[in-house]
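Lab notebook, entry 378. We have the chain sequence and a SMILES string for pyridoxal-5'-phosphate, and the next step in the workflow is to get a structural model of the bound complex before anyone spends time on docking refinements. Request logged below.

Task: model protein plus pyridoxal-5'-phosphate, output structure tokens.
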Amino acid sequence: MARPIRAEISASALRHNYRRAKELAPNASALAVVKANAYGHGVERVAAALHDADGFATLELESAEILRARGISSPILMLEGFFEASELKQFAHLQLMAGIHDAACLQQLANASLSQPLDVFLKFNTGMNRLGFGCDSADALQAVEVILNAANRNANIRNLTLMTHFASADAEGSAGEFAVERQVTRFSEVLLVAKKVLDVREFKVSMANSAATLRHSIAHQDWVRPGIMLYGSSPFTDESATELNLKPAMTFSSEIIAIQELRRGDAVGYGATYVANQPMRIGIVACGYADGYPRHAPGGNNTGTPILVDGIRTRTVGRVSMDMLAVDLSPIPKAQVGSKVTLWGQDLSADEVAQAAGTIAYELFCAIAPRVRMVSVA
Ligand SMILES: *Cc1c(COP(=O)(O)O)cnc(C)c1O
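Result returned:
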């Protein structure tokens, strides 16, 4: 028999979650963010499930090529634009929308000889301090004016969207409000300059990631860019995916491949980090960090990471090994070799596992290893 570990990707959950984004931002178009192989879910599979989305956003040219090859004809935004000018031919050929975040990229685009012009998203840095044109001072806004003039004259640019990205739209309560408001205020300065400089030229605005799509309608504007919510995970720590009416797109599961009866004082796994303080049954699961399960998931005596066996909640014990981990079978006396184990997905959100392991579901999804069989389900 094949190793029982697998990840099922639900097309109906993906569609449900995309619809949620559309419901929340009814006046915006929604670009389904499918970078990093659709957050580990498989870009082809997600494209098939969301084939009628308003558009897609990605980062890797290969994944844009896959989307076009799969017959996707809606807009595709390249979130970080091109990494070298030689890619621009392919951008024009595939009609990709290019993110542009600095003057050098803008100049390279102006200098390129393209078969057709591109739609461009000019990215502004309103506080994240990663990518984008600065706009936090009078001098910076003067420079923005120069940039917008240059963009306006650039024959290789067709439609223009001004974009920014939030650093803390997922922060709790008033902290989130405040953080979003601050970036929106800064961005509104850019929009004022744009109205003046671009005059009759129409432009669009894009700000919202999942967190802002879910909570900050002020940021919805023309294009929202939901990522993690499409996969059924909550960007917040104070509101769960279920509470947000999101459905897990991935169910990561395996089986118990051995059972150990521990006596009091017996330890489990590398480093003997768990010691039984009474006789107990544990199950050995065919899943380890080489499958993408986080090695830092705690399994000490007073900790443990949530996991389901036959749909019943229990916890991991001991350290996660490369290919295996162990679970406490006390709540599931009927469990045996072959019992189904859910690492995360239906009835156990990846957010909960991530939180126990000190990370976020984004990282868990992206870390699913190639050796895990991934299958599409309706
Ligand atoms: C990844 C990304 C998103 C999606 O973010 P989520 O938090 O997953 O919704 C949106 N915009 C940009 C620029 C991104 O890089």
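Notes for the group: The first helix runs from residue 11 to 24. Worth checking against the assay data. Residues 33, 35, 79, 165, 209-210, 225-228, 235 surround pyridoxal-5'-phosphate (CB under 6 Å).
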